[in-house]
Amino acid sequence: MRGGVGSYAPMSAEVTIAIVEDDDITRAALVARLATEPRFSMLFEAERLSVARAQLDNAIPDVLIVDLGLPDGSGLELISEVATKTPDAAILVLTVFGDEEKLIRAFERGARGYLLKDETSIGLVDAIDQLLAGGAPISPAIARYLIQHLLREQAAIAVDESPPGRTLGQDLHPDSRLSAREIEVLRLAARGYNHAEVARLLALSTHTVASYTRRIYEKLEVHSRAEALFEANRLGLIDQQDG
């Protein structure tokens, strides 16, 4: 029974769970582990993306446990579909070490937890409880990777703070001049690209692009994309061909 984030009552409410995992041994071990908890009810188990989609057409579980590498597609697709249909779905990624490059994309698409397969024997039930209480369970090794990733991006942003070589307009205060990367983001926005597309083109995460966008708004003293593009054009920060 779905109670929503933060309303989880572990001893009184039945929690429906679905598992999407292509490895038979791993899937069987997960089912066996969850069967020891009377409050958990297995809604379905699936070994392929297509099978999971068919099952999810009938019902959405309280907790979806999904592997990223499936024989007929990526678990990222399933995460997006479920999160779009049910924004409060508790989605837990279960994967092998080495899928870290998909970490940010999984969270961006709606995952709320990320476990390595070799840690599920000791952390699966706790992870589910954390999810349903509004938490975000992450394996320690994954947490370290995430911190390192964010530090690298912050370092890249700091480097981009150095003033670009070109003049950025006489009306813009020197302390508020846009960095070369911020102008790059602005020009792509002027061409109609959204955050996700800008992130892909510049090999950044959407979170980083959003940070650049906030800083552009602050420096140009605007509150919307349209205002930012108008002001940037007035100051000569973007060319006519960018629009």
How does this model look, in words?
The protein has 243 residues and is of the alpha/beta class. It has two domains: 15-139, 3-Layer(aba) Sandwich (Rossmann fold), CATH 3.40.50; 152-242, Winged helix-like DNA-binding domain superfamily/Winged helix DNA-binding domain (Arc Repressor Mutant, subunit A), CATH 1.10.10.10. Helices cover 48% and strands 13% of the residues. It has ten helices and seven strands. The protein has helices at residues 24-35, 49-56, 75-85, 103-109, 120-132, 140-160, 180-190, 195-202, 206-220, 225-235, and strands spanning 15-20, 40-46, 63-66, 69-70, 73-74, 90-95, 113-116. The protein has a five-stranded parallel sheet, with helices on both faces. It has a two-stranded antiparallel sheet with strand order 4-5. It is elongated and about 65 Å long.
Strand proportion, as a percent range, falls in: 5-15%
End-to-end gap: 50 Å
Query: How much helicity do the residues have?
Result: 40-55%
- CATH topology (fold) name of the largest domain: Rossmann fold
Protein structure class: alpha/beta
What oligomeric assembly is this protein in? single chain
Mean pLDDT: 79
Number of helices: 10
How many separate structural domains? 2
Q: How do the strands of the widest beta sheet line up side by side? A: 2-1-3-6-7
What is the alpha-carbon Rg in Å?
22 Å
Tell me, briefly, the overall form.
Answer: elongated
Number of strands: 7
- Low-pLDDT parts are 1-12, 163-175
Biggest beta sheet attributes: 5 strands, parallel
